[in-house]
Amino acid sequence: MSPAIAQAAAPVRQPEIRPVEASTLISYRGVGKVFETDQGSMTAVRDITLDIREGEFVTLVGPSGCGKSTLLNMAAGLFEPSTGTVSYRGEIVQPYNRRVGYMTQNDHLLPWRDVTGNVMIPLEIQGVPRAEARDRVETLLRDVGLQGFEKSYPSQLSGGMRKRCALARLLAYDPEALLMDEPFGALDAQLRMRMQIEIRRLAMDLGKTVVFVTHDLDEAVSIADRCVVFTQRPGTVARIVDVPLDRDRDLMQLRHNNTYRDLTAELWELLAPDMEGGDRT
Amino acid sequence: MTETNASTVGTVMQNKKEAILSRRQKARQRGNRIMMIRLAFVVVFLAVWQIASMYLVSDFFIGMPTEIARDLWAWALSGTLFFHASITSIEALLGFLLGSAVGMAAGVLMGRAQTLAEIVDPFLMMFYSLPKVALAPMFILWFGIGIDMKIYLTATIVFFLVFLNTYAGVRSVSREQIAIMKLMGAKESHILRKVVLPSAVTWVFNGLRLSVPYALIGAIVGELIASNKGLGYLLANASGQYDTSAMFAALIAIMILALALNYAVKVVEKKAMPWKAAEDQREMSI
């Protein structure tokens, strides 16, 4: 290979290489959150310092009730932290951060609207012209594999299809970051794997930043670029690991991947002591 | 995955259609059988009544089916039945519309304005616990004994049922749902139009369906107390003449009117909430 060709080839490959220091999108600085309830105050999380970089796929994993969802809620601006700050692109998050999309375990589809109607909602709110909105919904439904069900009502859909519909609605308003709170928790293993593959593919294709909460360690490692492990409540960061797997990994084949197996085994050890004490709370 | 998905979607839809067809056939057969049993029941009931009124009990107390039929037929032919029924229908319908319109508006307003709701709550409850027909004498004083007094009485009764249901419907919208909408950039007006009102519709129709018999109560009681037309008047008139069969005939006319109104609400309900039909068709899963 002549030097000239090598030089010419270099810039072409450039876009594929991830910048080492991507800009920070969501930043938690010494964040703690205390909820006042009738039984007294309950500390959900404490001393969280964490940066989510733009374009990265981060999973938050830990035992149930360790305040992972609380972190998402604060990033969305649903409530403020009790201590510390949560900022988005360097600015303190104000109520209702519209640059993020939120997908919860409950899909919150509107039962009186069919699939098209549900996905249409954010576009209607933005005032997108009807014809254009229809086209966009059609594309989105194809992207999430819901073609043929445009006229079905949520009550007629299976759990997996409802998730796809919620995902299409989420993508319809094109938020910069997707906050996902155990979105596939209620699905069976096969369906879950398919949804994981799809959400990763979509996030890569569309260049979305994803913060994905789960209590499933395998899921957390397999889909993440970076995985944040939490301790039992009051939740705090136990460890942050970069997942040393390819960006375009094949999720189906991960079971045979040694790096993946070692990493999940290692993190399992980290979480296991917490699980034994889990019943005491 | 897109390719395979499209073809499986095709077969799934096909199977679904076939399943729905055979299910419909079975449902029709069952429906026919139930219809036959009902018919038999009516025939036996009427026969027993007729025989009893001829040999066992004086028809002064229980009337006689043949007499009742004769009265109804005579009223139908002379136009009496239609005239009185239309008066009662107009009273019930206008009262129903007025009461439910005000009830819905108040329900939505209070559902969204929590402070206002808290302020007026005790007063509303005081008024609610009052049996509304007890207001009739007052309404006669204010509105006379014409048709409008019955309309207002009916509207007062219907108002509370629709108001309480609408209020509950508006309050039942989950806070998470609203938060999700706000993250999409929704303003209060969007939330009201796209989430709150449609989700309250189910509740509103519950209230409307409950109100139908009450709307008739308002109209009939109004007519019984003071009037010279309407099915209630027909009933009071027959009772004044100790004509038991005519009383039964009036009651049957009232019943038929109630059934027609119920049916009308059901039809409107189905049109207004197509997703409900979809829910009913679904296979049961627990």
UniProtKB/TrEMBL annotation, chain A:
One annotated GO molecular function: ATP binding
Keywords in alphabetical order: ATP-binding, Nucleotide-binding, Transport
SMART domains: AAA
Domain ABC transporter: 26-257
Domain of life per record: Bacteria
Signal peptide as annotated in the record: none
PROSITE patterns: ABC_TRANSPORTER_2
InterPro entries: AAA+_ATPase, ABC_transporter-like_ATP-bd, ABC_transporter_ATP-bind, P-loop_NTPase
UniProt family annotation: Belongs to the ABC transporter superfamily.
Protein's name according to its UniProt entry: NitT/TauT family transport system ATP-binding protein
TrEMBL record, chain B:
Domain spans labelled ABC transmembrane type-1: 85-265
Location in the cell: Cell membrane
Entry keyword Signal: no
CDD domains: TM_PBP2 (cd06261)
UniProt-listed Pfam families: BPD_transp_1
Protein family per UniProt: Belongs to the binding-protein-dependent transport system permease family.
Cellular component terms (Gene Ontology): plasma membrane
Membrane-spanning residues: 36-57, 81-111, 123-145, 151-170, 214-236, 248-265
Membrane topology: Multi-pass membrane protein
Main subcellular location: membrane
InterPro entries cross-referenced by the UniProt entry: MetI-like, MetI-like_sf
Entry superkingdom: Bacteria
Keywords attached to this entry: Cell membrane, Membrane, Transmembrane, Transmembrane helix, Transport
Full protein name: NitT/TauT family transport system permease protein
Origin species: Palleronia aestuarii
